[in-house]
């Protein structure tokens, strides 16, 4: 499994395509225990906001926000796959769905940390 410095990510149906600049590889791969992350069950990694570009299908992205409306969760309107979110805890970062990275199987990643988002102030608002 190779994490490239510039990596492509797509939703399930391919309508949405992202280009991710990942100079340090897969940074901070984790799961979160907040209400949103528990239900979607996604392994996420971090990229700085300027390192994520929507290269195709921006019109197919839909935004979901809840509670404080600070985090911005993006999903494909066609297939429903969560691709990324702008974090509440660090709005200068996106959390990316590792399973959307082309050629990467999140089940092959060892030792995925689970962060305690359920105990954060404003639980369930997207670490």
If you had to describe this structure to a student in words, what would you say it looks like?
- By secondary structure, this protein is mainly β.
- It has one domain (6-118): Metal Binding Protein, Guanine Nucleotide Exchange Factor, Chain A (Beta Complex), CATH 2.170.150.70.
- The protein is 5% helix and 38% strand.
- It is globular, with a radius of gyration of 14 Å.
- It comes from Enterovibrio coralii.
- This is Aldehyde-activating protein.
- InterPro entries: CENP-V-like (IPR052355), CENP-V/GFA (IPR006913), Mss4-like_sf (IPR011057).
Mean pLDDT: 88
- Please identify the top-level CATH class: Mainly Beta
Q: Which consecutive residue ranges, at least 5 long each, have pLDDT under 50?
A: 121-126
Q: Rough shape?
A: globular
CATH topology: Metal Binding Protein, Guanine Nucleotide Exchange Factor, Chain A
Strand order of the largest sheet: 6-7-8-9-4-3-10
Would you tell me the structural class of the helices and strands?
mainly beta
> How many structurally independent domains?
1
Tell me the series of helices and strands, N- to C-terminal: EEEHEEEEEEE
Task: Please state roughly what percent of the residues sit in beta strands, choosing from under 5%, 5-15%, 15-25%, 25-35%, 35-45% or over 45%.
Answer: 35-45%
The helix content is under 10%
Number of strands: 10
Largest β-sheet summary:
7 strands, mixed
Domain CENP-V/GFA: 7-123
GO molecular function: carbon-sulfur lyase activity; metal ion binding
Protein name: Aldehyde-activating protein
Family: Belongs to the Gfa family.
């Amino acid at each position: 499994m190779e994490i490239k410095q510039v990596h492509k990510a797509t939703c399930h149906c391919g309508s949405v395509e992202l280009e991710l600049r990942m100079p340090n590889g897969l940074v901070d791969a984790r799961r979160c225990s907040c209400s949103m992350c528990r239900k979607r069950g996604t392994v996420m990694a971090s990229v700085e906001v300027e390192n994520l570009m929507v290269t195709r299908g921006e019109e197919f992205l839909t935004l979901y926000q809840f509670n404080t409306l600070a985090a911005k969760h993006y999903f494909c309107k066609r297939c429903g796959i969560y691709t990324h979110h702008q974090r509440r805890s660090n709005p200068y970062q996106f959390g990316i769905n590792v399973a959307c990275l082309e050629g990467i199987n999140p089940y092959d990643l060892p030792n995925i940390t689970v962060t305690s988002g359920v105990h954060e102030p404003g639980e369930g608002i997207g670490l």
